[in-house]
Amino acid sequence: MRCFQCDNEATQECPRCGALYCDAHGDALCERCMDPALALPSYRVYRGSVLALLVGSVVAVWLLVLPPAGADQDGPPGALSGLVNTPTAVATETPTATATAEPTETPAETGTPEATEEPDDTPTATPEPTEPPAEQTYTVQPGDTLFAIAERFAPPGADLSAYADRLATVNNLADSASLSIGQVLIIPAE
Fold it and tell me: Which pairs with CB-CB distance under 8 Å and at least 24 residues apart come from 94-99?
C-alpha cells in the first residue's frame, strides 16, 4: 500500500477521510485533511444555511404581521411586550362613597320563630337623585393631541370638535398645541 501523495510505503490511515499516508505526509491526520482550504464547509452547507435564514425570517415577519388567532390584537406580541413602550390612557375617577348594607340574620339562623308581617300603609320613600358622574383626570402621554383625547373620552354621538373645545376651556388651555407630557387634564363628565 502506497501513500496517496508519494510512492513511499503507507504507515497510517487517516481517521477522518480514510486515506493511506506516510510519515512525511501527515501526523494525526493526513496532509489533505490538515489543509485549511479543505476545512471549509461545502457550498451546500452555505446554501442550506442561507435558505434556513431566509425561511426563518419570513416566518418571523409573518407572525409579527399576522399573529395567531386568539392573540392580543391591540398590543405587541407577548414576547415583545416588555421591550416595546406602548402609550396607554391613564384615566382615573375620583372615588365616590357608596353605602353598604349590613347583612341581617334570618329567623332560621337565630332560632326564633318566624313572625308574619302585616302590610304597612306608610308611603315608601322616593329614591334620592344620584350624583352626576364624577370628573375624570387624564395624564398626557407622548403623542397625545387634544383631539385624540377628546375622541377617546367624548360621549357617544357627541361632536368631537365641540368636545375638544370644551376640554380646552375646562383645562384653561390657550391652544390645542399647548399640551405637555405628564400634564393632568380634567375630563368633563358630559
Answer: 94/134, 94/135, 94/136, 96/131, 96/134
pLDDT tens digit sequence for 57-116: 999 988 888 766 655 555 555 555 556 565 555 555 555 555 555 555 555 555 555 556
Cα-based angle 38, 40, 41 (whole degrees, multiple of 5): 115
pTM: 0.32
Helix/strand/coil (H/E/C) assignment for every residue in 170-182? HCCCCCCCCCCCC
What pairs with residue 30 in β-bridges?
Answer: 26
Q: Within 13 A of 111's CA, how many CA atoms are on the CB side?
A: 0
d(CA 57, CA 78): 19
